[in-house]
Write a structure and sequence with these properties.
By secondary structure, the chain is an alpha/beta fold. The chain has 10 helices and 13 strands. The strands form 4 sheets. It has a 5-stranded mixed sheet, with helices on both faces.
């Protein structure tokens, strides 16, 4: 038995309809029905009678609802006490290091009275993105798939109880400082990059290649430097003429105009794998109003219909 299940029972009893309750709770009807059945099985009782006109409480359900309200009411009292008496709705996003994901978050947050909400955006390691959506620390996670990592990533996403939703597909670009010797090239090959350090986001000591945020992660780079945040990465581009391989989607409003994204020129060995960028959410879940607004902001920025 969980507090979430108690909240589900209370909401269904008030709405007298599983469909209406699902809309209020921002969960799918099958997911809500499954949660109720699991609780009924755990308790050994039937809580609701179901009919074409909705649901009604059984005698056991009526009794259980009294206890559910008491327990959940105590939880709300504690929650409100430690939120200064003002409960704020929460919305979080976990993402690989994409400036467009931050830009969309900014645009979404501006549309709300931020004193009434608790917003969070977390640029983090790939595995953490998956875990934070799985544990509902964040509602949405932003990741990419490629021919190389797709099978492993989809297995990881599915095993975490999540589903992947497509946003856009793009070719790989070499991302570097505007003062880099190669910044004005029409395209850049792997051979041209051999004298410069490759920059990659750190994924942890036990990370697999498929968790890398950069394509061609299995290549043997003559020089490679790991970093764990985007600001450090940008500084290394300037200080060491470093580069990274990315989607090429640059937000100048946030990062400034000191950087360039030059098309990556592939060859027989280093082929330009497409990057499919998308978002992950929990299976059978429905996006909250803020979640819908956030995805709309991403689509607008990426110019996706």
């Amino acid at each position: 038995m969980t507090l979430t299940q108690l909240n589900y029972i209370i909401t269904i009893a008030q709405a007298k309809s599983i469909n209406k309750a699902a809309e209020q709770l921002f969960v799918s009807q099958p997911s809500l029905t499954s949660a109720v059945k699991e609780l009924e099985k755990e308790l050994g009782i039937t809580i609701f009678y179901r009919s074409g006109r909705g649901v009604t409480l059984t005698n056991d359900g009526t009794e259980f609802l009294l206890y559910a309200k008491q327990i959940y009411g105590q939880y709300e009292t504690v929650r409100d006490k430690y939120n200064g008496g003002n409960y704020k709705k929460k919305f979080g996003v976990s993402t690989q290091h994409y400036s467009f994901a931050v830009k969309a978050f900014v645009d979404m947050a501006k549309a709300y009275d931020m004193s009434q909400y608790e917003f969070a955006i977390r640029e983090t390691q790939t595995r953490e993105v998956i875990q934070e959506v799985n544990t509902m620390k964040s509602e949405i996670g932003i990741v990419y798939l490629s021919d190389f990592n797709r099978k492993s990533m989809m297995k990881l996403i599915s095993s975490a109880g999540l589903e992947f939703h497509h946003l856009t597909i793009c070719q790989a670009y070499v991302y570097l400082w505007k003062g880099h010797p190669l910044a004005n090239e029409a395209s850049i090959s792997f051979e041209q990059l051999k004298d410069y350090p490759c920059l990659a986001f750190e994924q942890g000591e036990d990370s697999a290649f498929y968790l890398a945020e950069e394509i061609l992660s299995t290549n043997d780079y003559p020089q490679i430097i790991k970093a764990n945040d985007r600001a450090t990465m940008l500084n290394l581009m300037i200080g060491l003429n470093g580069y990274t391989l990315c989607s090429g989607i640059i937000c100048e409003e946030l990062n400034g105009d000191d950087y360039r994204a030059v098309p990556f020129q592939d060859d027989e060995i280093n082929q330009n794998s497409e990057m499919e960028i998308g978002y992950v959410i929990r299976k059978n879940s429905i996006l909250s109003r803020m979640g819908e607004h956030y995805i709309m902001a991403i689509r607008k920025y990426l110019q996706i219909d």
